[in-house]
Write a structure and sequence with these properties.
24% of the residues lie in helices and 21% in strands. The structure holds 2-oxoglutaric acid (AKG) and fe (ii) ion.
């Protein structure tokens, strides 16, 4: 695993709000990730979350049929598959996320497999952070290509630098690719950047970076394994997202989100120093 970030990669992330890391996984690791994904999905019976079928707050009902054909979205596979758990809790990836975000500790918010099936719809431009149950301008995700991500099958696109100006207001993710530019007209004339990736490469993007993806114009699959990260110390903001009703019943706005069973701390400078 290419887990040592160069100063250039960190600087690019800080400037653009995303960075691509080529050949992140070795061929053997890529094989392990694919096997873990296959096993984890086989045990899911189509459920999006370990404990329920659907997620809250993603799109409105009118767009559901469209959104269901953007990608298959399976969340928190780390919670119910041992191989995926080992992959997702890898401290080395946590350290990369912490370094890019410029924070001392990183927790998993949620992982998710994003599988664009043959002929899948495009992923409209959107922001991630406004969907989450905490509000942190430094929150970010990793997106690991498990198949080559090409112009033809739905590679990611980013609007460089957009994360410096976007807010926690949620422009949503509907059918219209350009809807977000009504909320952010200052980016209407931006040049987007495609993130073409060979299988095993990855990108990190800030959750406030405007991003989206092409349709899958091929008969093959475009599989990605992703994970959203929450800097340690964040608090509940009143948005349910992937939290269950039972978890919500115990939470008040402002409570620390530090339940290791839900949001494991995968990297912490303090823990590294204590163990040194
Ligand atoms: O894989 C895609 O099409 C979209 C990915 C995405 O929006 C994300 O990882 O935040
Ligand atoms: Fe996203």
């Amino acid at each position: 695993m290419k887990n040592e970030l160069t100063p250039d990669q960190i600087a690019n992330y800080q400037k653009d709000g995303f960075v691509v890391i080529e050949d992140f996984l070795s061929p053997q690791e890529l094989d392990n990730w694919r096997t873990a994904l296959d096993e984890a999905l086989a045990n899911r019976n189509g459920n999006k979350l370990p404990d329920r079928k659907e997620v809250y707050g993603k799109g409105d009902d009118a767009d559901k049929s469209y959104y269901d054909n953007v990608f298959d979205q399976m969340i928190n596979l780390w919670q119910d598959n041992e191989k995926m758990r080992n992959i997702m809790l890898d401290e080395r990836i946590g350290k990369m996320a912490a370094q890019l975000a410029g924070v001392d500790g990183i927790r998993i918010w949620h992982d998710q497999a994003l599988i664009k099936k043959p002929w899948a719809n495009p992923t409209s431009w959107h922001l991630d952070t406004p969907y989450w149950s905490f509000s942190d301008r430094k929150a970010l995700s990793i997106w690991v290509a498990l198949d080559d991500a090409t112009y033809e099958n739905g590679c990611l696109f980013f609007i460089p630098g957009s994360y410096l100006k976007t807010t926690f207001e949620n422009p949503g993710i509907g059918k219209n690719m350009g809807e977000i530019f009504k909320v952010y007209p200052e980016f209407f004339k931006s040049n987007s950047k495609a993130a073409l990736m060979k299988a095993g490469s990855c990108s990190f993007h800030n959750g406030l970076t405007i991003h989206g993806a092409h349709a899958n114009m091929t008969s093959g699959y475009r599989r990605a394994m992703t994970c959203a990260y929450m800097p340690d110390g964040n608090t509940y903001n009143g948005t349910q997202n992937i939290l269950s009703d039972a978890q919500l019943a115990k939470l008040h706005i402002g409570d620390l989100l530090n339940d290791d069973k839900q949001n494991p701390l995968i990297y912490s400078v303090r823990r590294v120093l204590e163990n040194a």
